[in-house]
Request: fold
Amino acid sequence: MDVLQKCGGRKVVLAPMAGITDGSFCGKYRGLFGIVTLGALNLDSATLSASKEMVKRGRKEFLYNLDEFENIIKREVKRAKESNALISVNIRFKDFDDAKRRIEILGKHCDIIELNCHCRQREIVNLGIGQELLKRENLETLRDFLKGIWELEIEKPIFLKVRANVVSVEELIDNLNKVRKYFHGIHLDCFNPGKDYPDIGYIQKIRDCFKEKIIIGNNSINSIKDAKRMLRYSDLISVARCVLRGNIRWIYEFNRKVDNKDNKF
Ligand SMILES: Cc1cc2nc3c(=O)[nH]c(=O)nc-3n(C[C@H](O)[C@H](O)[C@H](O)COP(=O)(O)O)c2cc1C
Reply:
């Protein structure tokens, strides 16, 4: 698949971290990742206001003037390109019409558009978006968003960033099946409530049902061993907190093994 080829054999993705993964952060890791993810970026005034509330209670978020969006994106993408990776952008919005023009801008400058169906912060959940989009009762909204993005014909792959165990895997499969034609990839945080290891059973079932999609497996990957386990059920893997901790040497080693087509891999 095109995205996988363009990753140049690198299987590790830098996952989004609000207020942290800006262009400079992504650009620091030259040659390390197949994809780096900017965001989450707010594309409308409702989500920007929600972010301002989150900042007030101490959370890191990206705040900017929505009227200057295109210039900001050009600057951030230019910086992120120092990574030599594909540039994905994790997006949040409540009002598609308010966000539309900004999605078109992202389509011009980024390689992948990733719809955030993951955020569990109350300010976002109260808007009925983020992880709320995974629930059956919000399927119409998810469909409207995805169809809306699809119809913009931006010709860039559309991914969904999804948190496991917000709904049962059966419900998620059923819901995603109903919007199947509007997206290309699933970036799955195998969030395992109360556990510090990923729910591998969840991604296994998603892989089985969405064989034609690109799957990025995520959650608590800190070593080559963790990466290999996740890659049994995904095309790529992603990392967030281990990068914050500076635990990245294993990724260089992993890339070398993949490059050398090392049998042990
Ligand atoms: C500080 C922080 C901010 C995050 N912000 C976002 C976000 O804006 N959008 C999103 O989809 N995921 C976000 N995540 C989730 C990560 O992308 C990832 O799914 C999660 O941390 C699990 O991966 P890890 O075990 O490698 O950290 C965030 C995670 C952290 C730690």
